[in-house]
Design brief:
10 helices, 2 domains, Lyase, Ornithine Decarboxylase, Chain A, domain 1, seven-stranded parallel sheet, alpha/beta, 370 residues, 23% strand, 16 strands, TIM Barrel
Length: 370
């Protein structure tokens, strides 16, 4: 069997293109590997921003995973509706998101919600809103460990913020959160050293807070690239996300992580705009285009290069163009799966070599009911 035969399936001729295709057995295997690395499903708080699907949450719950991270209020609502007991909103709520989060707490009393915070000014606003709603809101201090995107450095300012949360009526200090998504060194030794260096002040902050009598119920750390490194630490929750589906970028950059590409794109040749060119129906609207090419890798055409990419079209340059007549199916692995999933309103599910179910990508919505 060819190493790429897993991407094809018997009724692919019936699937309209472009399509997001999920290979269920490989997803289930990735989830098993996640649990094996963590050592205990209770140590996992996987990010759902990659898959955005309640069906994947159900698979995780069946394995004993009871927590998840969400990037949006809609994702958090989807998780609660799916029965996830513990949902962390991985962004600090601002503007209308504050009242939306509080309405979620009211609407799903069986789910424990929490959120991140890095702003002293926002703490007072969140506390006031929670008291007004007669609710208690749990906040984790968001720490900047080198990505310089959100968070406060793990030092005196972070400790002061934790104390402020703890002393503000309506709020509870839920612990610490540190995301190190900037650490993607291909060499495992280099990535491990960088991860330990970034995490050292986080553990120091935790120890100082505990010594001061502050509660630190949880420390949520990392993403997929540093997952296996953090999993060796005691008393942390790991929050990988991409490893559920994996993608071409991480497959190329992180050879030490043994996850399977499990989400593909089905495209068709719609034109031959030149002797050595193929045009596919796989434009910006079907595959994430925020990065340079290759934005999708085609194992059947490993030497192909992108000549042009627009809303509905991807033109490939390849000396084998004539081997793929108009109408031919090509299967590709997205370079970045997370934003690619968000472009599709449904995912075609392949099981036992045949496409059957179609799952609506519910979590791509910006609003569900609140």
């Amino acid at each position: 069997m060819n190493a790429t035969d897993w991407m094809t399936f018997e009724n692919q001729a019936d699937v309209p293109s472009p399509a997001l295709v999920l290979h269920l057995e490989r997803i289930q295997e990735n989830l098993r590997r996640m649990v094996a690395i963590a050592g205990d499903p209770a140590r996992l708080c996987p990010h759902l921003k990659t898959h955005k699907l309640p069906q994947i949450l159900a698979l995780q719950l069946a394995l004993g995973i009871t927590r998840c991270k969400a990037a949006t209020i809609a994702e958090a609502e989807m998780a609660a509706a799916a029965g996830v007991p513990d949902v962390l909103l991985a962004v600090q709520p601002v503007g209308p998101a504050i009242s939306r989060l509080l309405r979620l707490i009211q609407a799903f009393p069986k789910t424990r919600f929490s959120a991140l915070c890095d702003s002293p000014a926002l703490v007072a606003e969140l506390g006031h809103a929670a008291v007004h709603a007669r609710l208690s809101l749990e906040l984790l201090v968001d720490l900047d460990v080198g990505q310089s995107r959100t968070g406060v450095p793990p030092g005196d300012a972070a400790a002061k913020l934790a104390h402020q949360i703890h002393s503000t009526p309506g709020l509870r200090c839920g612990g610490l959160h540190a995301y190190d998504g900037h650490l993607v060194q291909s060499d495992l030794t280099e990535r491990t050293a960088a991860c330990h260096l970034a995490f050292e002040p986080v553990w120091g902050l935790r120890d100082s807070l505990l010594a001061a009598g502050m509660p630190v119920p949880r420390v949520v750390v990392g993403g997929s690239p540093t997952f296996a490194i953090h999993a060796k630490r005691p008393d942390v929750e790991c929050s990988p996300g991409t490893c559920v589906f994996w993608d071409a970028a991480y497959d190329a950059k992180l050879p030490d992580l043994d996850f399977l590409p499990a989400a593909t794109l089905l495209a068709r040749v719609i034109s031959h705009p030149g002797k050595n060119r193929l045009c596919l129906d796989l434009g910006h609207k079907a595959v994430a285009s925020e990065m340079p090419h290759p934005r999708v890798v085609f194992p059947a055409l490993p030497e192909a290069t992108a000549a042009a990419h627009s809303e509905e079209h991807l033109v490939l340059e390849t000396g084998r163009a004539r081997d793929f007549p108009v109408g031919s199916v090509l299967h590709g692995i997205p370079w970045h799966i997370c934003p690619t999933v968000a472009l599709h309103h449904e995912a075609i599910v392949v099981q036992n070599g045949r496409a059957g179910l179609s799952w609506p990508v519910i979590g791509r919505a910006r609003r569900l009911t609140v």
